[in-house]
């Protein structure tokens, strides 16, 4: 797959790159401990000392945002990893083989898609227990499987009768080889933009879950959890809501630009 | 026709008769099931009725008929992609390969020309990498393509080049029998002539038999030894090119020939 460079792609990569770089730095070093409270410095507005101000316990919000964004990024990345890998396996098998397996799995898939994703995640959380970061990943991962299964199924089904696949069958290539070597690289162009959209949905889903209190809980902090925390002190420390919300927006915007750039870049090559 | 030519023709026919069989299609009927997972009479649509012919070694058999008469279904059945409901298809050689009409979807767009030609050998698994490369280059010479093309992706090739690559990939495992499903219909006339000449040459070099499917009767006349005429899933006429073209028995064949002139 070839992609022509374009403004969307470049801007998206730069923006996402900066955010990811800061998150990676935040994993090893933050200006202050995100958990250390200080009564003297509570509810301070953004300053050079505290870039994003402090909350009602005097904790440095910039440090907390760095840590929280790290959690959010990890959850979103792990979620689309589970969702896309499992979804691609299901979609590839159903799309390529068709028949009864396809009918049964895709009807089940339709049923899953009929539920709002948050509701479905709530169901999984109520089964595995709340709070833990890994449970959130599991819940969201499962929720994301159907959409990827549908996208990849369409891609595999549309290519399975292509002449070059018929030739592959005639030369005696195994089904596994046809699926992995002959078909999979040709679905990347459909999968890649879907990954960026999925990543953004995962960021937002994690934020909503944590905001609603079914996501991560302390001592873990994610951007969504911080938003819900900030809501209680919106009047006293509006910068808390604004800063953590802004980071979510920038992350989603950057990855969205990459997705758009991928699609446009490929269209231009064709 | 002079006496000399007639003798030559008679000799050719003798040779054709004596040559070993490549393919026997005996009283084959078949079609498709549509809708639902159950194979019932209601959703069965028969496409081919009682098809019966054979192809001998070194022979180019034409298969003509209007679109929708089941020519491609017959090809799929010979390749084993569709099972016949009745009758039998017997191969006397290695599994045949096919070259498709549409040169734009017959090569995997994700890979280079070299990969596409080499892949059948990789799947076969009997040769090591240097031997595979050697065979790919040898085949590339036979289809008259320069080595520089090996690195190219299918999107960078012309229709004629793609068709040459498809022929190379189909022949790399040295099958004795090749099905050509409208291989030149998507190409313009000068390229058509080049590909037809290539097919003729390569048949001699590699001692191949072809089943050449086409709706273009002029092309069939240029290339084929014998011809099958198909109408609505039935073989209405078969014989040598001269028999059928100069003395068609069926009204349908006469109309087809009249339309081609």
Which descriptors would you attach to this protein?
heterodimer; A: 270 residues; mainly alpha; MetI-like fold; 74% helix; 0% strand; elongated; B: 261 residues; alpha/beta; 6-stranded mixed beta sheet; 3-stranded antiparallel beta sheet; 9 helices; 40% helix
Number of strands of chain A: 0
**Uncertain parts of chain A:** none
Helix content estimate of chain B: 40-55%
The amount of beta strand of chain B, in percent, is: 15-25%
* Biggest interface and residues each: A-B, 19 and 23 residues
Distance between the termini of chain B: 21 Å
The count of DSSP E runs of length 2 or more, i.e. the number of strands of chain B, is: 9
Radius of gyration of chain B: 19 Å
Shape of chain A: elongated
Classification by helices and strands of chain B: alpha/beta
Q: What is the makeup of the main sheet of chain B?
A: 6 strands, mixed
Which regions of chain B contain 5 or more consecutive residues with pLDDT less than 50? Answer: none
Widest β-sheet, arrangement of strands of chain B: 5-6-7-3-8-9
Helix/strand class of chain A: mainly alpha
Describe this structure in words.
The complex is a heterodimer of chains A (270) and B (261). Chain A has helices spanning 7-28, 61-97, 99-114, 117-128, 133-159, 163-170, 175-212, 223-231, 238-269. By secondary structure, chain A is mainly alpha-helical. Chain A has one domain: MetI-like fold. The longest helix of chain A has 38 residues, at 175-212. Chain A is elongated, with a radius of gyration of 22 Å. The termini of chain A are close together. Chain B has 261 residues and is of the alpha/beta class. Helix content of chain B is 40%, strand content 25%. In chain B, the strands form 2 sheets. Chain B has a 6-stranded mixed β-sheet, with helices on both faces. Chain B has a 3-stranded antiparallel β-sheet with strand order 2-1-4. In chain B, a hairpin with a 2-residue loop joins strand 8 (226-231) and strand 9 (234-240). In chain B, helix 3 packs across helix 4 (129-142), helix 3 (113-124) runs parallel beside helix 5 and helix 4 crosses helix 5 (159-171). The radius of gyration of chain B is 19 Å and the shape is globular. Chain B starts with a helix and ends with a helix. Chain A binds chain B through residues 1, 99-100, 103, 162-164, 166-173, 177, 182, 185-186, and chain B through 37, 79, 81, 95, 97-98, 100, 102, 105-111, 116, 119-120, 123-124, 169-170, 173.
């Amino acid at each position: 797959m070839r992609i022509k460079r374009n403004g969307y792609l470049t801007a998206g990569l730069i923006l996402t790159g900066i955010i990811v770089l800061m998150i990676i730095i935040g994993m090893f070093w933050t200006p202050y401990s995100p958990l250390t409270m200080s009564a003297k410095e509570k509810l301070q507005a953004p300053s050079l000392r505290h870039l994003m101000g402090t909350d009602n316990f005097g904790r440095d919000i910039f440090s907390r945002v760095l840590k929280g964004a790290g959690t959010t990024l990890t959850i979103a990345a792990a979620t689309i990893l589970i969702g896309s890998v499992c979804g691609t396996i299901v979609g590839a098998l159903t799309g390529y083989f068709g028949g009864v397996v396809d009918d049964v799995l895709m009807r089940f898939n339709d049923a899953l898609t009929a539920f709002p994703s948050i509701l479905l995640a709530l169901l999984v959380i109520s089964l595995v227990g709340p709070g833990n970061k890994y449970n959130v990943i599991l819940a969201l991962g499962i929720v994301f499987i159907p959409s990827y299964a549908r996208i990849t199924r369409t891609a595999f089904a549309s290519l399975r009768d292509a002449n070059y696949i018929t030739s592959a069958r005639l030369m005696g290539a195994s089904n596994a080889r046809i699926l992995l070597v002959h078909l999979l690289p040709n679905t990347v162009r459909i999968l890649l933009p879907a990954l960026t959209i999925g990543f953004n949905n995962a960021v937002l889903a994690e934020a909503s879950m944590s905001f609603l209190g079914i996501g991560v809980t302390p001592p873990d902090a994610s951007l969504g959890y911080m938003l819900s925390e900030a809501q209680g002190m919106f009047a006293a420390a509006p910068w808390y809501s604004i800063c953590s919300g802004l980071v979510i927006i920038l992350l989603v915007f950057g990855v969205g630009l990459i997705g758009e750039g991928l699609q446009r870049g490929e269209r231009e090559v064709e | 026709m002079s006496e000399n030519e007639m003798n030559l023709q008679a000799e050719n026919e003798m040779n054709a008769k004596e040559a070993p069989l490549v393919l026997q299609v005996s009283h084959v009927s078949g079609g498709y099931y549509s809708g639902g997972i159950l194979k019932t009479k209601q959703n069965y649509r028969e496409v081919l009725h009682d098809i019966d012919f054979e192809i001998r070694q070194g022979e180019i058999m034409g298969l003509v008929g209007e679109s929708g008469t089941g020519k491609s279904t017959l090809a799929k059945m010979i390749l084993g992609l569709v099972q016949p409901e009745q009758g039998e298809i017997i191969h006397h050689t290695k599994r045949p390969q096919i070259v498709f009409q549409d040169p734009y979807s017959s090569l995997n767009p994700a890979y280079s020309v070299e990969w596409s030609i080499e892949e059948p050998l990789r799947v076969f698994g009997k040769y090591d990498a240097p031997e595979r490369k050697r065979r790919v280059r040898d085949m590339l010479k036979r289809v008259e393509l320069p080595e520089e093309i090996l690195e190219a992706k299918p999107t960078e090739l012309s229709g004629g080049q793609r068709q040459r690559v498809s022929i190379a990939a189909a022949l790399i495992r040295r099958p004795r029998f090749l099905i050509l499903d409208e291989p030149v219909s998507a190409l313009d006339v000068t390229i058509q002539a080049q590909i037809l000449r290539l097919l003729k040459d390569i048949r001699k070099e590699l001692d191949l038999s072809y089943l050449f499917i086409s709706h273009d009767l002029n092309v069939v006349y240029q290339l084929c030894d014998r011809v099958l005429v198909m109408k609505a899933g039935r073989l209405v006429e078969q014989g040598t090119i001269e028999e059928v073209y100069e003395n068609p028995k069926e009204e349908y064949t006469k109309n087809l020939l009249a339309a081609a002139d």
